[in-house]
Amino acid sequence: MRETVIDIDYDDDVVLQGACGYDYRLDYSKMNTERGQSLITVGEYGQVDQIRTQLDILSEGSSASIDTVDSELNWLEQKAMKEDVVQFVHSEDRIKRERGKDNTYDHTLMKRDIQDESGYDDIELLQKQIELMKLKENENSKTIEMKSQLKELKERYRLREEKDRQYTERVRALKQQTRDLEQSPLEKQSVLSSLDGELMEPSHHKHTSNKHRKKITDKQEHMPFMIKSNVPKFSDAAQFQEWKIEVESMIISNIYHKEILRQAIRTAIGGKPRKILTTLKPTATTEEILKTLESNFGDIKSGESLMEEYYIAKQEKDEDISAWGIRLEELLQKAIDRGKIKEYRKEKMLKTRFWKHLGNTELKNATRMFYESDCTFEELRRNVRKEEQELKSAKEPEHPKQVNVHQMDNHLEILNDLKEQMKEMEKKINTLTQE
Fold first, then answer.
1. Distance (Å, rounded) from C-alpha 274 to C-alpha 259?
2. Strand, helix or coil for residue 287
3. pLDDT for 153
4. Cβ(389)–Cβ(346) under 8 Å?
5. Which helix (H) or strand (E) holds 84?
């Protein structure tokens, strides 16, 4: 298709307004110019091309005969044809055809732009999805690593518990073996003694039933060890509480035969307390002996008196840290035994009274940080003792230096020489004054 360019001269005051408006015509004119196309083509506007040819012929004829009457007519015809061309250019049919053509192209461009924009959006969306997938993958890998570490820790704890259990069972088996070995000689001895007794019995007692023998054997198996107990001596009434605790510990252990332990307790009592045995029956049990000793030598203070003594207790002047702590513990333990305070309050009460009523203010200030911390009473007492030793070592006077005897002799000789010289000087001064 051949393109035809129409050059139409418009006056400055003429404003072209078509069916779609001036702006519409101006925009599509610019787009067609960029594409190398004119507003009107030969296929669509063939008549305009013919009008263009006729206008060129008439313009040439008018210039050849400008002074004739025909020139006037030609000028009028040219003007009329120009008006027709202008009217055709502004016609509604032409603008509709051109608008449909250009809109089709415009829709194509818009679709292409939309496709490009949608393509960019898809790329951005995919990139975001990839980043999210990477983050999830990192989180999953971290979670897997953490779970594997927890699994390893659990396995270690399980192995450690298994080792501890095996160790405990091994120790228990060894202890049981030791007990069996200790008990076997005693059992053999008891069996021998029983056999000797059977040999000495009459014949009608020899045929003892198997059931009776089995009962005796079971009883012997559950009997405590037939070993001699080493009960400490008790002769000072002031030490009754310590002695009583030791004896009760031996009773609770259940490793000594009751009769052997009872006889050992009677033997251990000496001095003035031994007179108590005269008030008891020879068959008195261990519990009866301890009860009688408690009523005569035990602490008979009431719980209220013990608590009052606790609340007024202070460290004495010549009392060291260990003795001060033991005195407090003894008071509170007696109060616990009499039901005045609960066991769980003991630790806090000991710690508070022990530190707040220390006799040395300097020692108290030096150990404040230990008291205000979460340490136990034993840790507080140990730290206070350590500070006490450091303060004592810092205050100990230095030993005077030993003077060498030879040096003393030299000093004495020098002093004697000085004295003689002073005497000679005095004599000379006296002689001079006399002259």
1. 19
2. helix
3. 86
4. no
5. helix 69-89
CA distance 216 to 205: 15
Q: Which residues contact 333 (CB under 8 A, 6 or more apart)?
A: 346
b/e 422-434 (16+ beta carbons within 10 angstroms → b): eeeeeeeeeeeee
How many domains does one find in the chain? 4
Q: Alpha-carbon distance 315 to 328, whole Å?
A: 10
pTM of the model: 0.37
**Token match 């009769």: residue?**
259
**Range in 62-71, 74-83, 265-274, 308-317 with the lowest mean pLDDT:** 62-71
Q: Helix or strand or coil: residue 37? A: coil
Q: Which residue has the tokens 């035990």?
A: 298
Quick: pLDDT tens for 116-175. Answer: 556 667 788 888 889 889 898 888 888 898 888 888 888 888 888 888 888 888 888 888
Picking from 90, 114, 140, the residue at the C-terminal end of a domain is 90
**Nearest by Cα to 93 from 35, 37, 53, 48:** 48
Residue after which a domain boundary falls, among 297, 315, 335: 297
Alpha-helical segments (H) within 274-404: 286-297, 303-311, 321-337, 346-356, 361-366, 368-372, 377-395
Report DSSP state, residue 404.
P
Q: What is the pLDDT of residues 234-266, one digit of tens each?
A: 888 788 888 888 888 888 888 888 888 888 888
**Are 363 and 334 found together in one domain?**
yes
Q: Which of 351, 369, 360 is nearest to 394 (CA)?
A: 360
The verdict on 315 and 293 lying in the same domain is no
Domain carrying residue 194? 122-199
How far, in Å, CA of 62 to CA of 69, rounded? 10
If you search the block for the tokens 């530190």, which residue do you land on? 355
